[in-house]
Amino acid sequence: MYRVIHQLKERNFDRPVTRSEKAVLDYLEEHFQSIPYETVIKIAQESYTSQATINRTSKLLGFDGFSDLKYAIKEDVEHIKSKSTRHIRNTEDILSKIDFESANDLVNFLYRNRHHLLLFGLGASHVSAQYMARQLLYLGIPAIVVSELQMLEKFKDYSILILSSSGETQRGLQLMHDAKKAKMNVLSITKKDSSIMEGSLFSFHHDVSIDKMEGISREQQLHMILMINEVINQLKREYD
């Protein structure tokens, strides 16, 4: 739990803050990560205040003095760096499980058939499909997000891109089956070796495991958003 950083951002104190104390608070927030390596003299000089003001501000924040505050800030900084490192490692792990080369054929097909494209996704993947449709519109590609099987009847000369993190959802499989019956090309952004991947003409795929928590599958979408962004970036290069 952070001991200082939230106080500096929220500043909900039980008394009014003086102008000089505000200057110290502003300095502490702006230079937060370097405070553990600075002296009270330097902070006083650069914030145009005094050591007494810094000690008074430290007490305002709930500490006995600047030394106590400085140690708490050091703990906050270490916690921030540790948390950031975990997120970076998690993202790197996800990136390593995306087969970016598999995007190439999909992108080429999308570019050649860019005015006849449907998108389909369920649950969180439906949100990703809406995000992709918006990004495609910025490129002048009018992709349509469909949510019901009956909609396919009106778009028989279109291709459909199925977004499915697992590649095994029943409605996704049924839609793929019906699309093929309607002679539509089926594309996908999905999991490697899944049923939807195997049934697609072109598939941009990943091998990110399903996140399970107490028996409930929690559908992550970070890898799907990263994959969508890769497709959009490659399409942009086609237009340049």
Q: What does it look like?
A:
Helix 2 packs across helix 4, helix 6 packs across helix 10 and helix 7 runs parallel beside helix 10. Helix 9 links the parallel strand 4 and strand 5. The protein folds into two domains: 88 residues, Winged helix-like DNA-binding domain superfamily/Winged helix DNA-binding domain (Arc Repressor Mutant, subunit A), CATH 1.10.10.10; 143 residues, Rossmann fold (3-Layer(aba) Sandwich), CATH 3.40.50.10490. The longest helix is centred in the middle third of the chain and has 31 residues. With 240 residues, the protein is of the alpha/beta class. The protein is elongated, with a radius of gyration of 26 Å. 52% of the residues lie in helices and 13% in strands. The strands form two sheets. It has a five-stranded parallel β-sheet with strand order 2-1-3-4-5. The two termini are 48 Å apart. InterPro entries: Homeodomain-like_sf (IPR009057), HTH_RpiR (IPR000281), RpiR-like (IPR047640), SIS_dom (IPR001347), SIS_dom_sf (IPR046348), WH-like_DNA-bd_sf (IPR036388). This is Transcriptional regulator, RpiR family. It holds the Pfam family SIS. GO terms for molecular function: carbohydrate derivative binding; DNA binding; DNA-binding transcription factor activity.
